[in-house]
Amino acid sequence: MTLNVLFAAQSDLWADYEAPLAAALAEAGLDARLDLSIPAAEVDYIIYSPDSELQDFAPYRRAKAVLNLWAGVEKTVGNPTLVIPFARMVDPAMTTSMTEWVCGHVLRYHLGMDADIVNPDRTWGPRVPPLAAERRVCVLGLGELGTAATQKLAQFGFSVSGWSRSPKRIDGVTCHHGPDGFSRALGSAEIFVTLLPDTPATENLLDTAAFAQMPRGAFLINPGRGPLIDDDALLAALDSGQLAGATLDVFRTEPLPKDHPFWAHPRVTVTPHIAAATRPATASRVIADNIFRSEAGDPLLHRVDTTRGY
Ligand code: NAP
Ligand code: GLV
């Protein structure tokens, strides 16, 4: 039987995804009709992005799963019309991209690169940076992306710690967990990376009290989600010197409004939500694999737990 697979993501993505998805579905041995428009009652699977026009899943009575193109699910997870299984994106190329972005920005702060990149007075002031082994980095969030980042940072030689909801064991990484482990994690590094999902439990996690527990002069790198951070508390921590710098890829409002103080702050670097895009070739294989699993009666990979919110 031919499976009807609806592509319900932003329509400008269709050009990038049509061929790789068709190839991946065929490689998986699936007989599928893939389209931007299929009558709702005939759809078997929905390939989805949260900024899609599709927000009411109720008419998709036959659909067996919604397969997200994004890792983050906060815009969809509370949708009361979404009652069928929902899988988020775990894309190996996205993971590589995030790891590269995180390591690049950690190395910038570790090596103090800004002093050489911005040196208007042409000051010849040699500074010998510490070795990575003498620098502590903590990754808040030890899921698919956070774990990969800790592993690569540990390979560089950094002294790496991390924090998650449940206990973890990662070779070469000191793992903290739960509310009790949060203070220990905040005291455990000079450079922090946030790779947590946006949920009710993580909103404003990085507030005045959290910044106060970091060593003075710490750096923050946030490719997770904007609401993890209390923006005003971050600006105050930067202005007081409690934090020495922040690199932010994600924001409460995107695009970041032109008059937002982050743009003008001398110790904030803004990147426009580019840390880790989903890559069509690899993501298509993940989606085809999940449809294959569903058709075989196996549980979906990367299924979202709607009660946890991620
Ligand atoms: P994931 O695999 O679901 O991992 C999430 C991690 O956060 C897990 O370790 C989880 O703990 C931890 N966590 C969740 N709630 C927590 C809490 N209340 N307290 C402590 N730890 C908590 O997610 P992922 O694939 O690594 O992605 C992480 C986030 O990155 C996404 O949700 C998305 O917002 C963001 N992202 C950004 C970009 C970008 O381009 N900027 C790209 C992709 C993703 P457990 O392990 O115990 O469950
Ligand atoms: C990007 O931010 C994603 O959630 O995939």
If you had to describe this structure to a student in words, what would you say it looks like?
The protein has 310 residues and is α/β, with parallel strands linked by helices. It has nine helices and twelve strands. The protein has a seven-stranded parallel sheet with strand order 8-7-6-9-10-11-12. α1 packs across α9 (280-295) and α2 packs across α4. The protein is elongated, with a radius of gyration of 21 Å. It starts with a strand and ends in a 15-residue tail after the last helix. The structure holds NADP nicotinamide-adenine-dinucleotide phosphate and glyoxylic acid (GLV). Residues 71-72, 90, 94, 98, 141-146, 164-166, 195-199, 201-202, 223-225, 249-250, 273, 275-276, 310 line the site of NADP nicotinamide-adenine-dinucleotide phosphate (NAP).
